[in-house]
Amino acid sequence: MSSQENPEENLPSTQETEHGSVAVADENPFADPGLPPHEHRVQDIDERAARRSERAVAFLFTLSMLATIGFIASYVAFPVDKRVYIFPIGHISALNFSLGMTLGVALFCIGAGAVHWARTLMSDVEVADERHPIEAEPEVKAKVMADFKAGAAESQFGRRKLIRNTMFGALAMVPLSGVVLLRDLGPLPEDKLRHTLWSKGKLLVNMNTNEPLRPSDIAVGSLTFAKPEGLEEHDHDFQKEIAKAALMIVRIQPDDIKDKQELEWSHEGVVAYSKICTHVGCPISLYEQQTHHVLCPCHQSTFDLSDGARVIFGPAGHALPQLRIAVNEEGYLEALGDFAEPVGPAFWERG
Predict the structure, then answer these.
(1) Residues 16, 24: Cα–Cα separation, whole Å
(2) How far apart are alpha carbons 37 and 59 in whole angstroms?
(3) Lowest mean pLDDT: which of 49-58, 135-144, 158-167?
(4) pLDDT at residue 1 tops 70
(5) Tens of pLDDT, residues 281-305
């Protein structure tokens, strides 16, 4: 019969006194049961099981070493521009995928091996350590409470309700001053991060000569930097505007352009892209004419200007924005509008 059917069995024993009252026996029904008996693992009593666990841990550590070797070999085996199809991710960089997988396997196997080692082979005997009580002596506790009550009485905090309530109001209101100070950190960005000085009809002006550019000024394999027409270095907001509108122009053989939109937005192979790296906003300045790759010198993000300026290496999150250009009646290169997306690094409210 279960204890639920006879709940009286779980109650402390009682006995009748000479006056007929019931007294509870001097027992503690909630006594500390102590630690349960130690249960040995199979590895503790069977050496063959212990050796199997040892081999399993060694296998995980060995697999981690092989994955590390694979990580190093990936730099040699895969070119930076090779792309592969991985289901269900899609087309991704073969180098980035191999580096991520091998490093992930190496770290996971080290962790899994350490956990398996600790749970199956290391000692799991529970050790109880008796400690002295940390609470204060009754005399000290009584004195502290008496001092607190005396201080509260002397302050008249409970008696002077007007003072108490106004103090609570002052303490609640004073943090609002900090909220107001946050508004003074600077003007609200609104949509300024989404737009630059580029607009339809703005001429592309050479940063070095300060002259409008013609297609003939852009040689195949060269890198030219440009700014919008009307932006001068002596303007008070020059640095703020050029940080968004800086442009780099290259000329690529039209047959070498892989991206359809890039070809449509170019003029006779002359393409214009934002100079601002999409990682942390550094200016891009290194161009390799054989591969049409540009490199950010800050963190080595690499973009392929012949394929929509997509990221092929490094921490940048997305491709460089392209500026649609054409030639006006006078033969000068001009913009056909602003960038189709915000330039530079992504921000939290970016759509």
Answers:
(1) 9
(2) 33
(3) 158-167
(4) no
(5) 899 988 888 899 999 999 999 999 9
